[in-house]
Inverse folding.
């Protein structure tokens, strides 16, 4: 079993993302990592079935990252072995005009997973304390108040049986350059690129600072944040998988007992 | 390439499900079938990316079957290799009180796929002309009028770029017995069984008749029905996969051209 604790942001700790590795491999070889991923994937398939069969708990996984950090590919690689009937992926874009007429958690709450199901958020309420802050879409008085709203909201979810796990896929500015350049070099990848993607890059350090504060304020016992070194994709997948499997194992789920006498039923 | 045409219900044809095989293998060996499935799965992954990149079309796949016909396992086996971000599975249960205050297509329409996406319906509007009829939930005057509403609705979807494919996973009454018995024999499968599941079984012939008429009335050029022999799971998966791949290939999709000059962009 891989130790995911080094990547966990302990509640109350003070961090600077610049000091956290983006390329670490946990002392593992890629081959060992791949083998562990294969085993964990199979276990996750079973845990999903138990989650669905019991309908007592649900799982919410949140991914945040800078552009090209791998939110899409992590989602694909970690969750595609699962039964698609029980998985819903929601990508949050800029709020629509309609959504702006409600509090910032309104549209988020709508997509919380029901019991038995898994929801994956590709971006989330954390855009409202990070991008909203860096791009100056909201005054400090507004976004500063949101940390507490987020914590209370996540507590509401966990009190109702939702396991909430939050992952920041951490890459360096240099690695992002490589990945974006690759999209430019390959015509079949152009559709993934928009020149406006480069704007956030100009404010890299502001983003790192805003994310650091968000993790300090919102990594709680109920809903922990993990900063995952994301430049080695196999290591990134492994940490995400192991964290999810650990959390679901701790629920100690079992198949529900029948409320009928199976031996008394005759199928005609 | 596997010929799926023998399983297609041609518009205007008259059928009796009792005459259609539930165990056919198309003259293939299982090993050949598995090899073809592997190839088609890989191709479907690429076609999904093209669908998403272009955002001109979408795909709606409808599954209907008697209990234990394999709607869940076909969904899992055909769609789990895909990117879960682009796939939404909707299981339709009995309409809620709220839904009963609207026309029968209202709740269905809401889940139509947006451009670039794939929706899978586990049960669908066809319950409203099959189960509603057999269980006498609606008088004939009501359900008889619905065939035309369904055809007009599906035409609306296809006119907007949605590929609509409908599959009936066809099993025999004897095969259903085996499958249900298996659920009773295994305590870890009890949660999949409800004694009320046996009710529809008592009306097997009525269901076959209602389904036959639904396929006759609603297999259109725009939105064809396929009756898939579903007792050999590999053959069932193969026919579903091949039909979907054929339909998506016929769109002749390609990656969109960039609306910027990639060579002029410098990433700083």
């Amino acid at each position: 079993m891989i130790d995911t604790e080094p990547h966990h942001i302990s509640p109350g700790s003070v961090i600077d993302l610049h000091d956290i590795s983006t390329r670490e491999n946990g002392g593992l070889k890629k081959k060992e990592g791949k083998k562990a991923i294969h085993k964990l994937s199979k276990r996750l398939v079973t845990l999903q079935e138990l989650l669905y069969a019991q309908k007592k708990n649900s799982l919410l996984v949140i991914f945040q990252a800078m552009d090209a950090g791998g939110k899409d590919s992590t989602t694909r690689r970690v969750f595609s072995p699962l039964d698609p009937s029980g998985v819903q992926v929601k990508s949050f874009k800029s709020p629509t005009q309609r959504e702006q007429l409600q509090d910032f958690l309104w549209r988020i709450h709508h997509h919380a997973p029901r019991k038995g199901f898994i929801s994956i958020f590709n971006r989330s309420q954390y855009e409202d304390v990070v991008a909203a802050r860096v791009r100056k879409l909201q005054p400090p008085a507004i976004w500063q108040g949101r940390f507490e709203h987020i914590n209370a909201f996540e507590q509401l979810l966990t009190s109702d049986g939702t396991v909430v796990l939050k992952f920041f896929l951490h890459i360096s500015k240099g690695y992002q350059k490589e990945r974006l350049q690759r999209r430019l070099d390959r015509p079949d990848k152009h559709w993934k690129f928009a020149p406006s993607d480069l704007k956030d890059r100009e404010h890299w350090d502001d983003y790192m600072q805003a994310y650091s504060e968000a993790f300090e304020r919102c990594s709680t016992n109920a809903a922990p944040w993990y900063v995952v070194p994301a430049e080695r994709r196999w290591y990134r997948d492994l940490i995400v998988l192991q964290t999810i499997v650990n959390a679901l194992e701790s629920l100690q789920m079992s198949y529900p007992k029948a409320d009928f006498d199976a031996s008394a039923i005759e199928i005609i």
